[in-house]
Design brief:
This protein has about 260 residues and is α/β, with parallel strands linked by helices. It is about 45% helix and about 15% strand. Strands 1-2-3-4-6-9 form a 6-stranded mixed β-sheet, sandwiched between helices.
């Protein structure tokens, strides 16, 4: 698929942004290819986790300004048409998504990295909001995602001061799960993804959905919603296997069903 390479390692699908000459800068074609690749990969029920990374020296350098004309005169409508489907696909993916950040994740690329479930960063990785440098506001979901990951004050610090964030500092403040040597980035990302793929996929994704909903719910409403979803998911094959394995004092063998 143009712009996005697809591969697999057992039950893990691997998606690689493949426009290295531009540090994988976003274009309607690239984001369209990403949305289609997520859909295509996850139609295979044997795929139980995804890894998203970038080819070359960077993860994603943000929006390709040369391609902005393709969005049309109504920029908001263009972004929602061409970019939102990829972000939505990652955020609502039926399997967990690990993002392996190599090199820079800037502007919209920073936003894209946050759209997954967990981030692993190469030691050379860096994160920068960029927007205030060119007198713009953060976009592509940054103002929703970043404060929820690291808190309001730290998010505003990054957005207003436009200071780059090293991989180590990103780990310290809770943006990334792990920092690894560059040569081991994909190995560690696949190890984490395989661990997730071996888990009860439906329950893992339902947990993600509950966390998303909690941002807008009262304590009482979320209390009820958890039990409602629990009542539904406890009938799944994995939940039955999990209970049986607990009683029989053995390791559960989950199938994602």
């Amino acid at each position: 698929m143009a712009g996005v390479k697809q591969a697999r390692d057992g039950a893990v699908g691997i998606l690689t942004l493949d426009e290295p000459a531009s540090l994988n800068a976003m274009t309607p074609d690239l984001l369209g290819a990403l949305a289609a690749a997520v859909a295509e990969m996850t139609r295979d029920e044997d795929i139980r986790a995804l890894v998203l990374t970038g080819a070359g020296r960077g993860f994603c350098s943000g929006q390709n300004l040369k391609a902005s004309a393709a969005l049309g005169e109504d920029i908001a409508a263009g972004v929602m048409r061409f970019y939102w489907p990829a972000f939505k696909a990652l955020r609502e993916c039926r399997v967990p998504v690990v993002v392996a950040v190599n090199g820079v994740a800037a502007g919209g690329g920073f936003s894209l990295a946050m759209a997954g479930d967990m981030i692993i960063a190469a030691r050379s990785a860096s994160f920068i909001q960029v927007f205030s440098r060119i007198a713009l506001v953060p976009d592509l979901g940054s103002t929703w995602l970043l404060p929820r990951l690291i808190g309001r004050q730290r998010a505003l610090e990054l957005m207003l001061l436009n200071e780059p964030l090293s991989a180590e500092r990103a780990h310290e403040i809770g943006l990334v799960r792990q920092v690894v040597d560059d040569a081991k980035l994909m190995e560690e990302a696949l190890t984490l993804a395989c661990r997730l793929a071996e888990g009860p996929t439906r329950a893992l994704v339902a947990t993600r959905a509950l966390v998303e909903e909690s941002e807008h719910a009262t304590y009482e409403a979320q209390f009820r919603r958890e039990i409602e979803l629990q009542a539904s998911i406890r009938k799944s094959a994995d939940a039955i296997e999990g209970r049986n394995a607990f009683v029989e004092k053995r390791k559960a063998k989950f199938t994602g069903r």
